[in-house]
Amino acid sequence: MQHAGPGAASGTVLTVRCNVDPASHGCDIDGSRKSAAATSYVDIAHAGGVITRYCHMGQRPFVEQGRHIVVGHVIGLVGSSGHSSGPHLHYEVHLNRDSSAAGAVDPVRFMRDVGAPLGKPVSCRFSLNMSPSHGDVA
Q: How far is CA 135 from CA 13, 31, 58, 79, in A?
């Protein structure tokens, strides 16, 4: 099955870490199982109405709704829950506090535009560093 959005394929157990700069703000978590397509996922509400979504976790996320976390906080494990062809992290970005498909934007373009291209470690508010050699997705 194919889907829109970047995914980090995984053959090993990888942790999923929050990508919010704690110096600027915290975030809210929704670890509920609302969608059969993604099953175990986390939505993180950032300042400015941005929502980042981490999907297909291997088990229930390690965080609860309403919990404030900081950058680097482990929020779950990469898995293959929901409609998935294998273990990977599916990552989405939504704008205007709209977590529906209507609010979704191209996450690769968005991350590049805010100075945090996917796949490269950066030190800013929005960063997703995929480094399987270190056992993490940060």
A: 7, 22, 15, 13
Distance CA 46, CA 109 (A): 18
Only one residue has tokens 């929704």, namely 30
For domain 7-133, the CATH superfamily is Glucose Permease (Domain IIA) (2.70.70.10)
pLDDT, tens only, 63-79: 878 888 777 778 888 87
Whether residue 45 contacts residue 21, with contact meaning beta carbons closer than 8 Å, is answered with no
- Of 93, 105, 14, 11, residue with least CA distance to 57: 14
Contact by Cβ (8 Å): 76, 54:
yes
Domain boundaries, the chain: 7-133
pLDDT digits (tens, 9 = 90+) for 25-70: 333 343 444 444 546 778 888 888 888 888 877 778 888 788 887 7
- CB neighbours of 88 closer than 8 A, spacing ≥ 6? 7, 8, 9, 10, 56, 78, 80
| Alpha-helix runs per DSSP H in 10-126 | 107-113
